[in-house]
Predict the 3D structure of the following.
Amino acid sequence: MPIAQIMLFGFAITNEINNVDIAILDHSKDTTTEEIINKISASKYFTINQMIASEADIEPAFKKGKIKAVLNFEKDFSRNLIRDRKATIQIITDATAPNTANSVTNYINAILQNYQQSKNEGVQIDYQIISQIRMIYNPELKSVFMFVPGVMTIILMLVSAMMTSISITREKELGTMEILLVSPLKPSQVIIGKVVPYIFLSIINAAVIVLLSIFIFKMPVQGSLFLLGAESVLFIITSLALGILISTIAETQQAAMMISLMGLMLPVILLSGFIFPISSMPVPLQLISHIIPAKWFIIIIKGIMLKGVGMAYIWKETLILIGMTIFFIGLSVKKYKIRLE
Amino acid sequence: MKEENVIEAEELTKAFGDFKAVNAISFEVKKGEIFGFLGANGAGKTTAIKMLIGISKPSSGQATVAGFDVYTQRESIKKNIGYMSQKFALYDDLTVKENITFFGGIYGLSRAKIKEKREQLISELGLEDISNKLVGSLPLGWKQKLSFSVSLLHDPKIVFLDEPTGGVDPITRRQFWEMIYKAADRGTTIFVTTHYMDEAEYCDRVSIMVEGKIEALDTPKKLKEQFKVDSMNDVFLKLARE
């Protein structure tokens, strides 16, 4: 356990960036821009994910969620640099994760500076590469934009998964579960009865969080509120299914709580991409992050709230959540059957 | 007239890996009988009961409870039995009344029926003064009596009692057995496990389980004659030492 923890904390908690996916919009396609692009792609910090043809394609590229920044070279970059001794590059970053956005611009600027210096050796009049920074989705870099989706995810997960698992194991501990199972009620009825109150509780929770974030933290909801609600309910059900699964494994309330805290809270905080960018983590951790439902939910709510995306952009994440839910329920049913044998 | 069997078990076995917790037990329980199911701790009593009430699947053998098969008709069995487990299992944080109402509801009794049963039960147990108190605050003896009454709420044909008098004082145990007799008089079959041998004397017939097997099964009187001893305690000791 301590080994797992130190590995997790050591690798996951980092504000450094690594292998961040970016896109390039190159209006000039000349030798200078090519040199700069090569320099950037040669660094371990960035991976060039795609080339964009026009300004109109920037927004959709961000909405897909893979890229964190777009470098936009102005037209006639080389010529401007030689003739006017200065040229402009626009750095557009996705500020839904403000810390990452900041680091990304700093790193790119550093690379540009470096390139600029190498050009300026032995030159009388300095070349200047001017970078314009545009933070989209969160121009003021409010950290609350990042925390609200994360906190909402944690709360929904906690209430749903932890409370359900604890309340079911509590019945097991008290022995009342046995009595309920001997009664004419079907096991599924017992479980549904235990779960329904938490569905309502979680829906109210989600609604309160969204209202607070809109009215107190002035967080925008660019996309459809209805979609946000529907996705939240889906995530609640996923968490409940996880809770049921935990309760089939754990025999005592304490065990259920430990599994929920260690197995859910920690990964949700560290590996969901809520605070620390997933792309900067080592590959094994990135792989683990894929099986964390919270990761997908955070992508979905950030997308809906900040980027205003619709189903067309998040159907994949939605399907993953649905798949996970079915898997958890199926596994619980199976586990439960084994217990009966 | 042929006496009706409400429980029939034949070669009923439950194995966990190589270990046979219940090893091919066969017995019948007649309608209206108080059947004592005796054995030391760990002899397999609870496992056997769990198979009969449908929350554990037998590994092999046959059994019917109230005429229903334990493999295929568990749901029908559940409607016809009451069960009181070793552990006290009412909700401590509900009041006496609420517990009765809740369990009545689970067994699908109508509201009117629940109300009638509730009042009857509270007055029979003399719980009028504390019917609005949390069950958690009651002394153990009362809890057990309440728990037994709750298991009879839906007038089951058979009631399974798994060590109902564990940790209860002798006076309460006496009262408890009076309740058992009353229920038996009304035609309910009682299937009771215990390791108090004096209680075995109260049963119509007893079976004694040793290490997963039924070693003796008869009326207490005949068992004592068979083993040529004066009390069930001695019968049990003789069997256990063999």
